[in-house]
Design goal:
Blueprint: H1 7-28, H2 35-42, H3 46-52, H4 56-79, H5 85-100, H6 109-117, H7 122-144, H8 151-168, H9 172-185
């Protein structure tokens, strides 16, 4: 009889599964990736995978939720390292430019997931909306610190830059949005 699986091993297996699924879903698209491919990439048997996630939709939601935590934490670390509130808002777009220039950038994972599954999956749609709301709220905190009422334009410029860079494969939309936000903020 095999030894029982420890909590630590469960955590490591879950991380390996989420890493593999996130990479495959982001690179190839959710619907293009079968669970056999996720199994092969994670090194876990399908039985273990389905014990953790009863359906592929559950795995997609877990991937998006974990990615949201890492994505927004990385953005916050960069932006909050800047002291001046106006420069802090502009730092959002500096961070976006770096993200857009990363090898393998394929746009917004949440927009991609929504485009593939949002109309058919309430769970995915809810997770995408949760991420967008949290990102909006994060931007709002930084914009409110400037004392200017420009949260919605700044948020929409960030979202537009993300979508445009994802489609074009060019990081330039971050620079253009940065310039537009600098005008909104009245900074040079």
């Amino acid at each position: 009889m095999p030894a029982p699986i420890t909590e630590e091993q469960n955590r490591l297996d879950r991380d390996a599964l989420l890493d593999a699924a996130e990479r495959l879903f982001y690179e190839q698209g959710i619907q293009a990736v079968g669970m056999d491919e996720v199994r092969a990439a994670s090194g876990l048997p399908l039985k273990r995978i389905y014990r953790s996630f009863a359906a592929k939709e559950d795995l997609v939601v877990a991937v998006l939720r974990r990615r949201d935590q890492r994505w927004r934490a990385s953005l916050a670390a960069r932006v909050e390292a800047v002291v001046d509130p106006y420069e802090r808002v502009l730092a959002i777009f500096d961070w976006l430019a770096e993200w857009f220039a990363e090898p393998g950038f394929r746009g917004c994972a949440w927009i991609n997931a929504y485009g593939e599954l949002g109309p058919a999956s309430e769970a995915v749609r809810a997770e995408v909306r949760s991420h967008k709301r949290a990102f909006h709220d994060q931007v709002a905190v930084w914009v409110h610190a400037t004392g200017l009422a420009v949260v919605e334009p700044v948020f929409l410029l960030a979202e537009g830059a993300i979508v445009t860079a994802g489609i074009s494969g060019d990081p330039a939309p971050a620079r253009h949005a940065h310039a537009a936000v600098a005008t909104l903020l009245g900074t040079p």
